C-alpha cells in the first residue's frame, strides 16, 4: 500500500516549516497546501498554527478554508493553535468564533502563585482514554507546550496536562483530533503521535 | 508542579560557526552549527538558543540558511537571537523554522518592537534578552551591543524597570544574561536573578556563570528560574546534559529525563 498522503494546511502560521520537517523525518508524504481540492484528496489533514486565535481564524477565512475544514471526512489533526481553532469559541483577542468542529470553549490559563503564563516548556501527559493516536505515550511522558490559552477537560479529552489547572493536551471527536503541545518539537513523544496519526488512526 | 525546569544550551554563532568567548570576548571556534545542535539534542537538552553575536554590532540581520538546516535536523524547540529589529526580520527567522525570536539591543533602541512582535506572532514567540551588569552605585543596569566589547554601551535603565517594561509590552520570556558572571563558571548570579524573579511573571531563564552541577541546583532552588542556559560548560564536555539532569533529578528538581 502507498504511504498515506498528508495535506498540511497552509494557514499562514509560522510553525508550518517545523511541522513539515517533522513529517519528513518520520517519512510521511506531506504537501503544504491551501487548495481545497488537495485537502479533500489527501488521506490525512493537519492544521498547524501558532500565534493568536483572531489572526488564525482571519487567515483561514481569507484563504477560503473554513468550509473545506468542515467537509473533511478523513482524519484531521489540529496542532497547538490549530487544535484550539477546532473548538467553538476562544476567549483570545476579546472573543473569537472558531471552527466549531468540537464543542467547547478555549479559555485563558489563570495566573497562580509560582506558575508562569505562557505555559512554556516540557510538561507531563496523563492518559484519560486510550486511543490509536496516543498509543505508546505512557503517563508521565513529556511533551513541549507553549500557550497562554487552553481547552478545559471535556468528554473529548484523551490526555491532560497540569499547569494552573488541568487542561486538554490531546482531544478527539470522531475523525478530528487535536494536540495542544507541539509534536514537531516534542522529541520522541511528538514523533510517536505524528506517526500514529499517519499510520494508526482509522478513518 | 509537573512542568520541567529547562536546561538550555546556548550556541553563539559568528560567521556561520559556533564560537565561545569569555566575558563576551576572545571567541574560539567550537564547531559546525547543525552538528552541535544534533549532538545536544541527542543528549537530552530541552531547548537550544542561537545567538548571532555579531549581527547587531555589524548592523545586519541574522542569516536564515542555517536556521532552516537546524529546523530540519532537530525535534526540540530553538530560539534565534541577533540583529532582529523588525517584524519582517522576525518573520524570516520564524518561517525558516525557529520557534522563538529573542531581541536584545534592538529592543533597547526601540522598545515598541517587543509589542509589534507580540501582536504579530503571539507573546510566546517573543523572548527579550537582557544584558545586565551591576554598577558602582549597586544598581543593575542594562547594556546594549554586547556582542562587540568595543561597541558595548551602558544605559541608564535599571534592569528591574526594563524587565517590567518589556513584559507590559508583550515579552513572553526573559533571558537574563548576568554579564559579571558570564564565562567564568563561578555560578549564576542568584542574587540578581532572585530580584528579577520578583518582578517577572513570565518564564525567566538564567544565563551566565554555570560551571558545576551545584550551580544549576542553586539557581533553580534559590532563584526559582524556569530554565538555566549555559554554553562553555557544555561545549568543553566538563558537564554532559545527561549527568546534569540526573543530578538535578536526585536533588529534587523537576526535569525531563529520557
TrEMBL record, chain A:
It comes from the Bacteria. The keyword Hydrolase applies. It is found in: Cytoplasm. Its EC number is 4.3.2.10, 3.5.1.2. GO terms for cellular component: cytoplasm. The keyword Lyase applies. Its main location: cytoplasm. It catalyses: L-glutamine + H2O = L-glutamate + NH4(+); 5-[(5-phospho-1-deoxy-D-ribulos-1-ylimino)methylamino]-1-(5-phospho-beta-D-ribosyl)imidazole-4-carboxamide + L-glutamine = D-erythro-1-(imidazol-4-yl)glycerol 3-phosphate + 5-amino-1-(5-phospho-beta-D-ribosyl)imidazole-4-carboxamide + L-glutamate + H(+). Residues 8-200 form the Glutamine amidotransferase domain. The active site is at residues 80, 182, 184. Gene3D superfamilies: 3.40.50.880. Keywords: Amino-acid biosynthesis, Cytoplasm, Glutamine amidotransferase, Histidine biosynthesis, Hydrolase, Lyase. Pathway: Amino-acid biosynthesis; L-histidine biosynthesis; L-histidine from 5-phospho-alpha-D-ribose 1-diphosphate: step 5/9. GO terms for biological process: L-histidine biosynthetic process. Transmembrane segments: none annotated. One of its GO terms (molecular function) is lyase activity. IGPS catalyzes the conversion of PRFAR and glutamine to IGP, AICAR and glutamate. The HisH subunit catalyzes the hydrolysis of glutamine to glutamate and ammonia as part of the synthesis of IGP and AICAR. The resulting ammonia molecule is channeled to the active site of HisF. Heterodimer of HisH and HisF. This is Imidazole glycerol phosphate synthase subunit HisH. It comes from Ornithinimicrobium ciconiae.
